Amino acid sequence: MIDVLRMLNRGRSRTERVRALLVAAGAGVATFLVCTAVSLADYEDEGGSLTGLGLALLALPVAGLVHQANRLASATRERRLAALRLAGATPGDVRRLGAMEGGLLALGGSLAGAALYVLIHLSGPLPQVPVVVAVVTLGGVVSGARAGRHVVASPLGVVRRARLRDPRVRDLLLAAAGAGLFVLVMSTRFQIAGRYGSAVIITAGLVLLLFGVTMAATWLIRAYARRAGRRAASPETLLAARLVEADPRAWARALSVVSLTVFFGAGAGAQQAGIGYTGAHALVDLALVVALVTSAAALVVHQAEELIDLRRSFAALAASGVPERALGGVLVRQAVIAALPVCAVAAVSGVAVVVLPLLEIYRPQWLGWAVARAVAMAGIGVLTAVLVALAARPLLRGALRFTARD
Q: Helix (H, G, I), strand (E, B), or coil: what is residue 406?
């Protein structure tokens, strides 16, 4: 299988090489962030712990970017995958190839990230490095395997098999469980399981809350898309609303990295109102800026993936006389319709997880800053989605030209 992978890699296009570099770089950044977060967790002061938690959770949007890149790869390796099927490979062999490719890229990137951490932190703890490298590599294997689940490679080409899922109650249960763990630790002032045990519990609670809230936002995205479709005043808005309504879960997944940034930005604002702006908060805000850039990159990848799926439909509309500018407007309206409910839920949740456990001591005058920060973060999240949609117009133009050549 490795020999086959090497042979296929010789025929990679420039786009595929960029995608592979993106996956490896993402794995390296995630490894460096998690290793640094573990070293900062050893500090006894609150600032070090806060910064360490922010850096550790910043690895989540990076992981989301890596998975989006792997999903895009499964749709762009048409000739290589079709050649494998023509040579007698089974669909399982193709998925194993994707898992191996994802794992090798993640391994190379994580080793580079670990080497950078060791060089910079020669006096810091090192036992966590091989564990983090192993976890990141395993994540790359799983992502590479799962990214190809909905792609059917045949000797005649590649077909993306859509699996549209309705909102699930399990997402609400995940959000409730995460919120419960977080409130439990905060209400007991980190005394429930000791310092490190409480840190593990609160991190697990935040991860569950983030995944649950993000995917539960599918309910809101679909409801908002239906409402926007019923009240659409233009064909572009109607088409955008129907496209979002048809697959709200895909948009919830793509916007998860944006919602993560909005969530922590709103939560950090609520905390700053109570204890003042510190150096640790400055580092967390800097990390949020990096996360926002990562979020934008992940959204670009999602837009590229969606255009691959819809290029023939858009090409048919263009051939029937629909201007390219109008199709670009559809992309922008899709971003607004999907991002508004997701960012709103993330902003409210970020403030709630800070304010509710401290409701007895949280002063009313602090809420003004917390609410203003939450509104600003939600607006920044929506604006990011809109700017990415505007930047994706060249991708739309390229997809239309590619389909016209077909």
A: coil
